[in-house]
Design goal:
Number of helices: 22
Helix content: 55-70%
Low-confidence stretches: none
CATH superfamily of one domain: P-loop containing nucleotide triphosphate hydrolases
Structural class: mainly alpha
Shape: globular
Number of strands: 5
Radius of gyration: 24 Å
Largest sheet: 5 strands, parallel
CATH class of one domain: Alpha Beta
Order of helices and strands: HHHHHHHHHHHHHEHEHHEHEHHEHHH
Oligomer: single chain
Mean pLDDT: 90
CATH architecture of one domain: 3-Layer(aba) Sandwich
């Protein structure tokens, strides 16, 4: 009995130490310590939950699922929260949407009013194009908005914003606008990000009604909220140094062609955010020889974590290391598509992979790159009008920062295209929406794909789309987004000036 008591005390002390390591951001050490604790006392259900949470944060998704399963098996408190975490892993990281739906429904079976699971279920329905099911989930959230025991009032405001997108106002006197205005005021008590979400949806609602002054006012307030939340985290000088380093490290083209070990080749779709990458992936997905991979974060995580400081860490070419990275990438894709990818290509449409093209060509020398382009002011405006996470796009809430970043992006792309002119194809969004068939025919020729009329019916696909554009790509092609900047022209002088200072030709801004 004394040994048992000693073990209990020791495990409690270790749990406190593990929690401390977690709080300090020392995640691998915290994981190792939780494993040690659980080897001693596997019945500690909360330890399994914490281990699962940390493994998820490290991108070890299968291991996280196993840890969460152990937590459930051993009677963890708040099991609905564990099912929610499993659902998020299946949906956001492993693309197993049926499994995600099962986990979210399991959470709701335990707690029918569990707001986070309802909100995530609604989002999953939206990604799958299931409008009415999504609305039903959001309405169930909104039904709890006034409940005194609801500790997720902030998520009720998010549900209001999402339902307003699916049931947009029909005129300027529509009550939904007043609800969103009131919600924007209420949201202040829940933090800047919650308020920003509501303000962005208010902006979208006004935009759809053609009330562009009111729309821009809401968007500007939303972006100011985000800047207050994160601080002005975009460093123009640092971005300039990063691009200079990329150009220096990857100064010459890759000459060694590694053997291709898979019949399905990765196809990288990249460029500025909001430049049409989701649309072109959806179009290509309609081709029988293309599997849509969505926004894969493998390379970005690799550069930011295992290869830090990047690109200095890969200044010296190491072919064996590059081959290992290629194998790891393929293994990651195989984990996402355990039944195998179809055809000739699997797409990776993470837009900011444009930063890594030199590295991509090191590990996949035969890789083809589709570079999506768009009118610079339209592109910059679309970035400003979309709530992008500042961890990914810290420039996105300031028009001058957007213009500066766009200039650095164009400078780096000019370098990549000089190195790999036959591997990079510029796909112009504006040309595509004006006259889709010839634009697609040229793209198919670049990819060595035969023409398929199904590509023009991309909006009829019953697939899952994991980006903010999931409803846009379910509509037939429309050209209204080209030239949209003219609706907001009186507000865009800072963006125009920044683009000109970044070296964009005046003729491109007409």
């Amino acid at each position: 009995m004394r040994d048992e008591a000693d073990n209990l005390i020791a495990s409690q002390e270790l749990l406190q130490e593990a929690a401390k390591l977690h709080g300090q951001g020392r995640i691998p050490e915290a994981i190792a310590l939780f494993r040690k604790i659980l080897a001693m006392r596997p019945e500690v259900s909360e330890g399994w939950y914490e281990l699962g949470y940390l493994l998820k944060a490290q991108g070890q998704y299968e291991e996280a699922l196993d840890a969460f399963a152990e937590a459930l098996k051993r009677g963890v408190k708040r099991p609905e929260e564990v099912h929610l975490n499993r659902g998020v892993i299946y949906s956001d990281h492993l693309r197993r949407d049926d499994a995600a739906a099962c986990e979210l429904k399991a959470a709701l079976a335990l707690n029918p009013g569990y707001v986070p699971a309802l909100l995530n279920l609604g989002n999953l329905h939206e990604e799958r194009g299931e409008r009415e099911a999504a609305l039903n989930a959001y309405d169930r959230v909104l039904a709890r908005a006034g409940d005194a025991d609801n500790t997720h009032q902030d998520l009720c405001l998010e549900a209001l914003a999402r339902s307003a997108n699916l049931r947009p106002p029909t005129d300027i006197d529509d009550p939904i606008l007043a609800q969103l205005q009131q919600a924007a005021t209420t949201a202040a008590q829940y933090g800047h990000v919650v308020r920003a979400n509501v303000l962005f949806m208010l902006g979208h609602s006004y935009d759809k009604l053609g009330a562009f002054d009111q729309a821009f006012d809401a968007y500007a307030k939303g972006n100011r909220c985000l800047l207050r939340q994160t601080g002005r985290s975009y460093d123009r000088m640092q971005q300039n140094k990063l691009v200079n380093a990329m150009i220096d490290v990857f100064g010459t083209p890759t000459e060694i062609v590694l053997p291709q070990t898979s019949t399905v080749a990765p196809l990288f779709i990249c460029g500025m955010f909001r430049s049409g990458s989701t649309l072109i992936e959806q179009v290509l997905s309609a081709h029988p020889l293309v599997t849509p991979g969505g926004e894969l974060d493998f390379l970005i995580r690799l550069a930011a974590e295992k290869l830090a400081p990047f690109p200095a860490s890969v200044a010296n070419v190491d072919h064996a290391r590059d081959a290992e990275f290629a194998d790891q990438y393929r293994a990651h894709v195989a984990q996402l598509f355990p039944e195998g990818a179809k055809g000739s290509y699997i797409t990776d449409k993470r837009p900011d992979n444009f930063l890594l093209i030199g590295f991509i060509k090191r590990i996949f020398p035969n890789a083809k790159i589709v570079h999506t382009t768009r009118h610079p002011i339209d592109n910059g405006l679309s970035v400003y009008l979309q709530h992008l996470v500042h961890q990914v796009a810290p420039y996105s809430s300031d028009l001058v920062d957007i213009g500066h970043y766009y200039g650095e992006y164009r400078r780096l792309m000019a370098h990549w295209k000089a190195l790999y002119p036959d591997s990079i194809y510029d796909f112009d969004y504006d040309d595509f929406v004006r006259d889709p068939k010839p634009a697609l025919a040229r793209l198919f020729a670049f990819l060595g794909l035969d023409w398929d009329n199904a590509a023009l019916d991309f909006h009829k696909l019953k697939n899952t789309v994991k980006t903010a554009s999931y409803w846009q790509v379910r509509k037939p092609l429309y050209a209204s987004a080209s030239g949209r900047w003219r609706n907001y022209e009186s507000y865009l002088a800072p963006l125009r000036t920044a683009l000109l200072e970044a070296g964009i030709e005046p003729r491109e801004l007409l």
